[in-house]
Write a structure and sequence with these properties.
This protein is an alpha+beta fold and 430 residues long. It has helices at residues 3-62, 89-98, 130-138, 179-230, 240-243, 248-268, 278-295, 309-316, 318-336, 359-375, 401-417, and strands at 67-70, 76-79, 82-83, 101-106, 109-113, 143-150, 153-163, 169-178, 299-306, 340-346, 349-355, 378-380, 383-385, 389-395, 423-426. It has a five-stranded antiparallel sheet with strand order 5-4-8-7-6. A five-stranded mixed sheet has the order 10-11-9-14-15, with helices on both faces. The two termini are 52 Å apart.
Length: 430
């Protein structure tokens, strides 16, 4: 399989696995950040409320009495008998200890505040927004605002009404923090969550990549093996890594090997006799010839034919003929096990290859085989079938396969012409 195919499979697998993982990470980040942010906002609102209540209590404790605006042209704010118009003691102390901005309103006008304008001047004397007046000053209800605009800056703000002893609303108390500071604090708090999610996704992605890479590597080994088998190499070897796996891929590998064995049996062997077929015999003979050409080792080939086989079919029928063929094939296969191999060449003809044997040794072996054939008594119904064979054997040499087979065939027919039931041998090179 080409590398780009591997990449395509691997990256497709990664895409369908890591993309949902990344989406899940994004969902966790968004949802987690939202929940965390809302939690932080809730905590801040409680904190602002707590500071506001304590600041109001500090004013009531330090300056008992009602809020009263005194003056005709220059107004002063009193609380009880105390002029608090310029008294920043309490709000500065609260601002320093909590980091929150404080503003004291008389009605809707800022009298005391820790908020400064761009030029550094406190924004006293300025009025509250209409929405704040309606929802706090006029309604008498405390309210929390996530995005209150004060002096062109967004604030997290808590406004609570200030009551005099007669139950009337004298003004408002504001406690707040710039939204930028709050959002920065939230972001810093969310950072560990973001980092944890990203690291988790990276670790999982690496694990998925390594695992899928191994899976794809196994698939490639299986694919290469199947490709070699499809190209005709029925002796191709499947990488043992595949069959060693204790999973479905390992089972697939074992099944493929079983399929290869079945294919090899179907393609290389004759279905009736179980011997190598003609196609397989050609291939194996070529291998022996190539090896002998390189090593100089001797080899011989023989072609044998069952004598008067047509008479067996005509007398007993083709079923009997098949039994005869299988019995002879079993005898040939058993005899040739230590010498080379036997193949069904066609019809009642058989090809025998004697590997690493000289002509005289091959001839002697064939005479032993012929004796075994003569001794066969094949039962069929109420009859017993006896038979003989004729063999032509010659030594291999510096000739091509076609000429070698032709020589063996010539010797076979010479044996038939001389009366059958014999072994005819000849070394054509002498």
């Amino acid at each position: 399989m080409k590398s780009e195919n591997k990449g395509r499979i691997l990256y497709n697998l990664l895409a369908i696995s890591i993309l949902p993982l990344c989406l899940l990470g994004v969902v966790i980040l968004v949802l987690g950040s939202y929940i965390f942010r809302q939690t932080m906002y809730s905590e801040i609102s409680h904190e602002l409320e707590y500071v506001a209540l304590n600041t109001r209590l500090l004013f009531d404790t330090a300056y008992p009495g009602d809020y009263v605006l005194v003056g005709d042209t220059s107004y002063r704010l009193y609380k009880g008998d105390n002029d608090i118009t310029d008294d920043y003691t309490i709000i500065n102390e609260v601002n320093t200890s909590t980091g929150m901005d404080i503003t004291l309103f008389y009605q809707d006008t800022r009298i005391l505040t820790t908020i400064s304008s761009a030029d550094g001047e406190l924004i006293v004397g300025t009025g509250a927004a209409e929405l704040i007046k309606e929802e706090v000053l006029y309604s008498g209800e405390a309210n929390f605002y996530y995005n209150a605009n004060i002096n062109d800056e967004a604030y997290f703000a808590y406004y609570t009404p200030l009551y005099n002893s007669d139950g009337n609303i004298a003004g408002m108390l504001f406690v707040g923090k710039p939204r930028a500071e709050v959002d920065s604090a939230v972001l810093k708090s969310v950072h560990p969550l973001i980092i944890a999610v990203i690291i988790t996704i990276i670790i999982m992605a690496v694990c998925i990549f390594v695992y899928y890479n191994r899976i794809v590597a196994i698939l490639i080994k299986i694919r290469n093996f199947l490709s070699e088998t499809a190209d005709g190499d029925l002796n191709a070897e499947l990488n043992p890594e595949v069959t060693r796996r204790n999973d479905e891929l390992g089972q697939i590998g074992i099944s493929i090997l079983s399929m290869q064995r079945s294919l090899r049996t179907m393609v290389e062997t004759d279905t009736l006799t179980g011997l190598y077929n003609r196609r397989s015999a050609h291939r194996r003979l070529k291998q022996i010839m190539d090896k002998a050409s390189g090593t100089g080792k001797p080899y011989c080939i023989a072609i044998g034919d069952i004598d008067f086989f047509k008479r067996v079919n005509d007398t007993y029928g083709h079923d009997c003929g098949d039994i005869v063929l299988k019995t002879v094939a079993d005898t040939l296969k058993s005899h040739m096990r230590n010498y080379g191999f036997a193949a069904r060449w066609g019809g009642e003809e058989f090809l025998l290859i004697f590997d690493h044997m000289k002509l005289d040794e091959s001839e002697e072996s064939l005479n032993e085989l012929l004796s075994k054939i003569r001794m066969l008594k094949i039962p069929y119904g109420d009859s017993t079938v006896s038979l003989t064979m004729t063999f032509g054997v010659t030594s291999g040499g510096d000739i091509d396969e076609k000429d070698l087979l032709r020589r063996a065939d010539i010797l076979l027919y010479a044996g038939k012409e001389s009366g059958r039931n014999c072994v005819v041998s000849r070394n054509f090179d002498n």
